[in-house]
Design a protein that fits this description.
The complex is a heterodimer of chains A (260) and B (789). Chain A has 260 residues and is α+β, with helices and mostly antiparallel strands. Chain A is built from ten helices and twelve strands. Chain B folds into three domains: 154 residues, Aldehyde Oxidoreductase, domain 4; 196 residues, Alpha-Beta Complex (Aldehyde Oxidoreductase, domain 3), CATH 3.90.1170.50; 325 residues, 2-Layer Sandwich (Aldehyde Oxidoreductase, domain 4), CATH 3.30.365. The chains are: A alpha+beta (260), B alpha+beta (789). Chains A and B meet through helix 10 of A and helix 3 and helix 19 of B.
Chain lengths: 260, 789
Amino acid sequence: MYDFEFKKPGSIKAAVAMLESEDAQALGGGQTLIPTMKQRLASPAVLVSLAGIAKMQGVNVANGVMTIGGATTHADVAANAQAIPALVALAGHIGDPAVRNRGTIGGSLANNDPSADYPAAALALNATIVTDRRKIAADDFFDGMFGTALENGEIITAVRFPLPKAANYQKFLQPASRFALTGVFVADTKDGMRVAVTGASEEGVYRWTEAESALNDTPEASALDGLSVSPDGMIEDLHGTAAYRANLVGVLTKRAVTAL
Amino acid sequence: MPKDHGIGAAPKRREDVRFLTGKGKYTDDINLYNQTYAYFVRSDVAHGKINNIDTKAAQDMPGVVRIFTGADFEGVGGVPCGWAVTDKHGEPMQEPAHPVLAQGKVRHVGDPIAVVVAESLAEARDAAEVLEIDIEELPAVIDMKAALEDGATKVHDDLTSNLCFDWGFVEENKAAVEEAFQNAHHVTSLELRNNRLVANPMEARVAIGEYDAASEDYTLYTTSQNPHVIRLLMGAFVLGIPEHKLRVVAPDVGGGFGTKIFHYAEEAFCTFAAKAVGRPVKWSASRSEAFISDAHGRDHVTKIELALDENGKFLAVRTDTLANMGAYLSTFAPSVPTWLHGTLMAGNYTTPLVYVNVRAVFTNTVPVDAYRGAGRPEATFQLERVIDKAAREIGMSPIDLRRINFIQPDQFPYATPVALEYDTGNYGATMDKLIEIADIAGFGDRMVESRKNGKLRGLGVNCYIEACGIAPSNLVGQLGARAGLYESATVRVNATGSISVYTGSHSHGQGHETTFPQVIAEMLGIDESMVDIVHGDTSKIPMGMGTYGSRSIAVGGSAMVRATEKVIAKAKKIAAHLLEAGEGDIELANGEFTVAGTDKSVAWGDVTLAAYVPHNYPLEDMEPGLEETAFYDPANFTYPSGAYACEVEVDPETGKVEICSFAAADDFGNIINPMIVDGQVHGGIGQGIGQALLEHAIYDENGQLLTGSYMDYAMPRASDMPSFSVDHSCQTPCTHNPLGVKGCGEAGAIGSPPAVVNAVVDALADLGVTHIDMPLSPNNVWSAIQAAK
């Protein structure tokens, strides 16, 4: 790790101002950034911790929407997001206790790791990503592996999840990292069935729209029987071939629908 | 009623108080006054020519004390290999030089090129980044078969090829084996891979070198399983330091699993550099560094064939193995695929003819050496897999096929066709016990239940035998060992009767501090709390060979028994004097010396006090003091054996394997502490399951280690494990050591991988799957199911 300046502002406004300086980097829970810095693969001059901003903490439900502060840890979500049980289960199975007590929802979404869990939840639940300057629909937020609509210095201050009628997340563990080798989040929302897939595509998290259409016609796992998932464009690595991941997308989607 | 004291009791591990409360003192906890920090600059290519190293800019960086390169080690010895194998033509193996720091070429990712020694680790790393190293990358050889092809790039230019040796065993049997195969009723053949593993002890390696210019004494603190072996290898072969000027200390060590047996370049570097810079030099491996510098394990590719007669009796076994040595010969690397592997190919069976061919191959990968079991897991895996396959092919139950081929209890001592003489065993008894504890009879019902849930259930059973308690020095000398394999102990009785035992065995998690005192307590009839164990410091203990090959209690414990017997003999003489009785009439029981048939007695403590305060003492006949040393060199290996069963459920949609139950019936001979034995078996099975389902060190074709961190190298975790059912009530005591013990450290890791794979193949047999290479990851299992369709 190289030397850096550490700042811990108390307000969103102050954080945004600090992030305007050159080579400044926002720090959520640091579960990706800190290891990267330790390996000397990242060297921000200034780290702006978001952990001291009270407004970015906590889980609230009002008017059919759950709002989770951008700096809320996975452990807090697992403890307080009972209004969406699938989100409790998801947050409670990210990494290990140490990761869950540091890692944050905003950090995870901003990083958009292709194997992360939260992007699938945000996409399937039709969440709105709230930043210091605007609101972004989840459908417009994710932009390929590690890519998002965020501008330089833009902070995720909160994530709003409309409460679904039902939702379920099926995560198939990569045996080593225990990230999602593939994960499928299925949500029955007021806008219909939404199916989001993480860990599978080379394009990052995506919606499996054919499955959504079939489920909107018949909201049962059997509706998926005729669908096949192409291995084209699927991630292929040590832990799974493209064909294997394509298979998992189908299997996990059915299991999620069955569990709704 | 279980004993509460001595041999067979199960006191809690006394060392755990410090380990579990963070009070252990590991090498990295040692910080010496004025120490410097070493950072190793390692090759990031698998094969390359070093054109130039420019240290000037780095030398000027803040905090830099000195930068070392290969040039500093010209004239210094290389890292030695401790075992020489003779090939099937009687020629010595090809033995390449292994410099401390690369000389002209790098041969694997992680090969050390230079070291920055600085005031802090951060400053050393900063300076390392500006070190200018010009390396011309060369083609790398990674695949063993490709490495043996004509015209393959050579890992070592000065060797004739990448073939380290071509070993045939037993060469004289080869023709008879061929004939047996030609005349066999049935031949089963199987090609398989024993996956490359990284040991990953919780504590990564650390070395601290210290030099006292006034006394010219060197001290090396290191994470080692055998400090005397390091002193011998490094002192005699690398740095030329005589033993009396070199102290090696291995304090608390956080797991070894074989990978801390070996002498590593970093140890020699720190010792050498401490004198060169005039200050202590400390190196602590990062986990990433451990992946590319700790010796790896396994990595065999094997074809095994089994010839059977019409009744299923084994006629012959023939194997052809490629064994990866990596880029250099690690300390005991040549012994692993040969004498620790070929000699086990008779297994628990009466197979009359065995021929094992092993070609050891150099590749541009990290050196491969012993890892928990070392050769014996590789032997057991292939043999027990091919037997399982044969049973399926000839339509016999895998249990019955094994039973009809077992060496029977009345056949011991049993000379195998592969050089060993098993002293004792009862393989039918452990199989019977296994059938009971694994509830084999209930498997059918459980399979039906699993089917209802869409899961395929499989049962895998196997046996194992291992040669442990390594070993008779004269025998291993004939087999190529360049060291003896005895063990030492000094039993120092203090004036008030407490005892310090100085053992050449080394505990790095095994529990010696608990079990060794149990033995002394049993022998003397005193409380265990009166006995402490001292180990891991060459300045304190007699020359010892350390701990590996499940040898601590069988060899080190035997040395301690012999020394204690000497203590008892002398103490009886003192007691006889004090009691004014004949020495032959003195009995020792419950900590008291009694004149047989009388009520005259003297307590242990009074005798020990008399030894050190010899006011009333036969000084004319005997020296004062009560301290004895013994060296024990066993007459044979010990032969633990057992039968293991694993039940799995396979999810056919995802290929995910869940281990539902795992049972182990072991015969370890006599047992000192059954709780510790349980723990050793649990740990071994855990590592075996890790190998079977999860772990795999994978290189790409350019020699980059793709599984260089826990993000991609799958370590087993608690949630991957079932609750184990282990039993060690079948006991055929070892016939040739004083405790009748066999050793239990490696059994679990040896016996469990075939049980897991046999179970998964059993579950998928109806789908046409006959074999899957380890690890049986979800992807690999699912792919095998698809391929069989």
